[in-house]
Amino acid sequence: MELINDTITVLSSQVVFFLVGWIFFVKMLFKDYELHHILVQLIFCVNFTLSCTMFELIIFEISDVLDIGSRYFHWYISIYSTLFMVIVLTPFYIIYFVLTSSRLVSSNMKIPLSLVVWCFYFYLFWKLGDPFPILSPKHGVLSIEQGISRVGVIGVTLMATLSGFGAVNYPYTSMAVFMRSVTLLDVQMIEKKLLQTMESITAKKRKIALAERDKQKNRHVGESESSGWWLKLSGPPRSPSTENIPLLKADIQALEELSRHLFLEAHDMQNMRERNEWSKTCQGKYFNILGHFFTIYCVWKIFISTVNIVFDRVGKVDPITKTFDILVNWFGIDVDVAMWSQQISFIVVGIIVFTSTRGLLLTMSKFFIWLSSSKSSNVLVLFFSQIMGMYFMSMVVLMRMNMPQEYRAIITSVLGDLQFNFYHRWFDVMFLVSATCTLALLYLAHKREVETVDNKNDNKNH
Predict the structure, then answer these.
(1) Cβ contacts of residue 363 below 8 Å, gap of 6+?
(2) Domain range annotation of the chain
(3) Using an 8 Å Cβ cutoff, are 75 and 421 in contact?
(4) What does the pLDDT read at residue 225?
């Protein structure tokens, strides 16, 4: 009876998660496209539901909502279902829709060929785990460890890459110190140049059209045999045009290229001006302060990741327990460790779950807008769905370290005999690589932008 009641609770929450995924799919991803395959939407929503269910079970573990036996049961159901979705079902339909969009594959061969390609993909996916020390050889092929260990490598790589990029890019885009000063006059000047360039292109195209019309008209007059009445109607032939048409076409091509650059520059300057105006608002000032905080976090994270890599170390104590240890042993503060540990763990996990879910969904929607088309939208949604499942499953593996020992026991037991230390070290390595590459790219972009502004100022002065 206890299991039935707990199952009703979990299923009710899964219905809510499914509806949230459905609304996000319709309102954010496919708002500009017509949905032709309801199966794509179902796969996305199921992956989203299973991902949220794992986070929900972590919160249930901290708050002790369900019976421990029920939690184990639903943990295993969620993990096996997620592994099936991200390893078997979603990749198969990605391959199927890719082949469906190709005209070279007949209708009768789509499913058999999809199975063949999926088998090749599955072989590569399985071989992915060979170079990494992710598990011991005693586990069977169908064990949870075999699936999670390989999914974890991809998911942790993705998490670390996005974290490294975000930790560097967020301060750069939100802090006022990195914003270029752009006035309304600057925007108007570049728009004036763009307008003059477009007028010049129009004038040159008009010259070409007139020259070609005169040339065509003179040729018709010369070829006419009955020139008597024709000449009276059309008048004497006009003198050949002196316009150099090939040169005009070359000028137009150069001016069109210049107009594209001017348009992009005007767009960037307008965006920068809007950012400058936004930075003066209360929200902009708040994000500016937040950018300073993230700058400190980025520097600290890069430093600590470097230390972890160089000395091959992994933290054994979660931040919450470490904080209470400092408060009690160093400052002598008398607190109820058990009670506050549960409350703070609940809050911290809730914040991590909310921010990570929101951040990933926003990132997915941005990439979808940039990359999608009417033909590729289904494949992109399925690809993002698979990435989402891997991302959140890997997050469960890493989140285990952020929880006190008494709350991580069931997660450790369910996930099995994984090399948890490897995933934390791998996260540090990929975070450091991502943050360093982002720093280098942003430095070069910022330096080029400053040089461009300096050159323009020099030209104005001269």
Answers:
(1) 162
(2) 2-178+284-461, 184-281
(3) no
(4) 47
pLDDT of residue 112: 86
Q: Where are the alpha helices (DSSP H) in 280-373?
A: 282-311, 319-325, 337-371
Q: What tokens were used for 437? A: 């590459």
Nearest alpha carbon to residue 297 among 172, 446, 168: 168
CA 442 – CA 436 distance, rounded (Å): 10
Cβ density class 69-99: b for 16+ within 10 Å, e for less: ebbebbbeebbebbbebbbebbbbbbbbbbb
User: Token pair of 385, please?
Assistant: 């769905």
Residue 336 CA to residue 314 CA, distance in Å, equals 28
| 261-292 burial code (b ≥16 CB/10 A, e <16) | ebeebbeebbebbebbeebeeeebeebbeebe
| Residue 418 phi, psi (nearest 5) | -95, 155
Q: Which residues of the chain have pLDDT under 70?
A: 1, 29-36, 129, 132-142, 174-180, 218-243, 313-376, 402-404, 406, 446, 449-462
Host H or E run for residue 414? helix 405-415
Q: How many CB atoms lie within 10 A of CB 216?
A: 10
Tell me what pLDDT residue 19 has.
Answer: 92
- DSSP letters spanning 109-164: GHHHHHHHHHHHHHHHHHHTTTTS--B-TTS-TTSHHHHHHHHHHHHHHHHHHHHH
Residues 6+ apart with CB under 8 A from 391: 51, 155, 158, 159, 360
Q: Are 95 and 379 a contacting pair, CB within 8 Å?
A: no
